[in-house]
């Protein structure tokens, strides 16, 4: 399997204080007990479902009137949208609870999940090159290391291997706030739902 795509760790053992042992355990989980989400959906169902894809947006006709371009993608957490301009510290308690609720492993009350460092807006802008069935959420899991860098990705939905590779490339240099384990930055998996809103209009 290509490095960086497909399997996610189960988050167990992240409370270990020794960084190297923690790292090895995470990498071991990727090969031993991780869930291959990309392969979890039957091929027949995928063949019948509308596919997600990357595309090149067509340039609009020149205009002297500056207008606000509406987003083509939303990021949700189990059907709940949060303030896209707020980083983790500025989210409301209800918004934080929504983010926590879909993460792949329970979080102790004193630990934090991974979250885009300055909020969802930059991520949503990047996603303008992605489209899929309108209004149908696509669950994406991104493993983020203790420095806030994306390492691996898995997608639960009707996507190709090429789409998964391109999504990892799109997120490769995105800035994330790392999650914490025992109050210290650690490697965790960030889950989010992408919802395509349709063409710009």
Structural notes for this entry:
By secondary structure, the protein is α+β, with helices and mostly antiparallel strands. The protein has one domain. The chain is globular. A 5-stranded antiparallel β-sheet has the order 5-4-13-8-9. It has a two-stranded antiparallel sheet with strand order 1-2. Helices cover 23% and strands 24% of the residues. It starts with 6 loop residues before the first strand and ends in a 5-residue tail after the last strand.
Summarize the structure.
With 201 residues, this protein is of the alpha+beta class. It has helices at residues 19-32, 43-48, 93-101, 121-126, 161-171, and strands spanning 7-8, 35-36, 53-54, 73-77, 80-81, 115-116, 130-131, 138-144, 150-156, 176-177, 179-181, 184-186, 188-196.
Q: Could you tell me how far the N terminus lies from the C terminus, measured between alpha carbons in angstroms? A: 40 Å
**What's the main sheet like?**
5 strands, antiparallel
Query: Helix proportion of residues, in percent?
Result: 10-25%
Low-confidence stretches: 12-47
Helix and strand element order: EHEHEEEHEHEEEHEEEE
Mean pLDDT: 80
Count of strand segments: 13
The total domain count is 1
Q: Shape, please?
A: globular
Q: Give the spatial strand order of the biggest sheet.
A: 5-4-13-8-9
Give the radius of gyration.
Answer: 17 Å
Structural class: alpha+beta
Helical stretch tally: 5
Q: Roughly what fraction of the amino acids lie in strands? A: 15-25%
């Amino acid at each position: 399997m290509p490095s960086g795509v497909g399997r996610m760790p189960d988050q167990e053992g992240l409370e270990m204080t020794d960084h190297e042992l923690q790292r090895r355990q995470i990498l071991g989980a990727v090969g031993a007990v991780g869930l291959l989400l990309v392969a979890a959906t039957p091929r027949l169902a995928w063949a019948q479902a509308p596919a997600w894809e990357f595309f090149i947006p067509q340039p609009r006709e020149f205009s002297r009137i500056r207008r606000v371009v509406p987003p083509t993608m939303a990021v949700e957490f189990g059907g709940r949208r949060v303030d896209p301009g707020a980083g983790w510290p500025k989210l409301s308690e209800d918004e934080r609870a929504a983010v926590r609720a879909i993460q792949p492993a329970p979080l102790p009350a004193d630990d934090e999940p991974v979250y885009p460092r300055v909020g969802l807006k930059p991520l949503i802008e990047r996603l303008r090159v992605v489209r899929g069935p309108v209004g149908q959420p696509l669950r994406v899991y991104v493993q983020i290391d203790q420095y806030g860098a994306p390492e691996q990705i898995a997608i639960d939905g009707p996507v190709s291997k090429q789409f998964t590779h391109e999504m990892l490339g799109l997120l490769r240099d995105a800035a994330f706030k790392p999650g914490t384990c025992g109050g210290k930055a650690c490697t965790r998996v960030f889950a989010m739902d992408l919802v395509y809103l349709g063409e710009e209009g």
